């Protein structure tokens, strides 16, 4: 039975976020809002929770889908990814914001959650007050994936619908109202030059990558 926490989107109640964080520290999976869409999150170091999160999304063991780390800020992000000066300048332009950056993971990232062949991980710093407040209370990054039910293409955006559909599979739902329901812009920084993988809510031009968008 999932616990339901209705929080203010701009001034979330610390008491409720502490309860949600305790559930996550205890191995639970939660649905939380972000600046792009609702996401499923769990503790990075909890193997069983990460496996359940992948099953909820319909990923099998061989799926090469990147999971994402939600970080509080750029300095925390840099603890989990190898970042050179050139990459750092681009990251600084896109954080916080609706961008996901694919980078080479450091040893702080368990190998089981990074890309199985490339040793990369998606990282981002969300610009959503409730997400940031939860990360602050939780004290470390959260392992995340967009809340898209298996076999569907659009993320769920109604917290009441999320609760109804995942009542017995999630341990917590953080309701901060509707999200933009547009995916993040994904930029692969693991190679020599940035590669625009997906154009979403984040404007590539803000990162100087307008010329990478296919016409």
**N-C termini distance:** 47 Å
Low-confidence stretches: none
The name of the CATH topology is: DHBP synthase
Number of strands: 10
Q: Quick one: biggest sheet?
A: 10 strands, mixed
Major sheet strand order: 1-8-2-3-7-4-6-5-9-10
Tell me the count of domains: 1
Q: What's the architecture in CATH terms?
A: Alpha-Beta Complex
Radius of gyration (CA) equals 16 Å
State the CATH superfamily name: DHBP synthase
- Helical content class: 25-40%
Give average pLDDT, whole number: 91
What order do the SSEs take from the amino end to the carboxyl end, as H and E? EHEEHEHHEEHEHEEE
State the CATH class: Alpha Beta
Number of discrete helical segments? 6
Q: Which strand-content bin applies to the residues?
A: 15-25%
Outline? globular
Structural class: alpha/beta
Tell me about this structure.
The protein has 215 residues and is of the alpha/beta class. The protein has a single domain (3-212), classed as DHBP synthase (Alpha-Beta Complex). The protein has helices spanning 14-25, 47-57, 74-80, 85-94, 129-138, 159-166, and strands spanning 3-6, 30-32, 39-43, 68-70, 99-104, 120-124, 142-146, 172-175, 185-188, 195-198. It has a ten-stranded mixed beta sheet, with helices on both faces. α1 crosses α5 (129-138). The longest helix is centred in the first third of the chain and has 12 residues, at 14-25. It starts with a strand and ends in a 17-residue tail after the last strand. The mean pLDDT is 91.
């Amino acid at each position: 039975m999932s616990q339901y926490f209705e929080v203010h989107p701009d001034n979330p109640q610390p008491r409720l976020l502490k309860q949600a964080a305790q559930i996550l520290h205890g191995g639970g999976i939660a649905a939380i809002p972000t600046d792009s869409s609702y996401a499923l999150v769990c503790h990075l170091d909890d193997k069983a929770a990460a496996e359940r999160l992948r099953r909820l999304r319909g990923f099998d063991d061989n799926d090469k889908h990147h999971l994402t780390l939600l970080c509080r800020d750029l300095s925390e992000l840099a603890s989990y990814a190898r970042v050179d000066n050139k990459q750092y300048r681009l990251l600084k332009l896109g954080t916080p914001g609706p961008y996901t950056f694919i980078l080479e993971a450091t040893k702080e990232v368990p190998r089981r959650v990074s890309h199985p062949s490339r040793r990369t991980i998606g990282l981002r710093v969300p610009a959503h007050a409730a997400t940031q407040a939860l990360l602050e209370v939780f004290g470390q990054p959260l392992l995340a994936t967009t809340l898209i039910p298996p076999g569907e293409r659009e993320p769920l955006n109604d917290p009441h619908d999320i609760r109804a559909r995942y009542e017995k599979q999630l341990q917590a739902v953080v309701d901060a109202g509707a999200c933009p329901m547009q995916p993040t812009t994904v930029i692969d920084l693991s190679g020599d030059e940035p590669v625009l993988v997906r154009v979403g809510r984040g404007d590539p031009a803000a990162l100087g990558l307008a010329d990478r968008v296919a016409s």
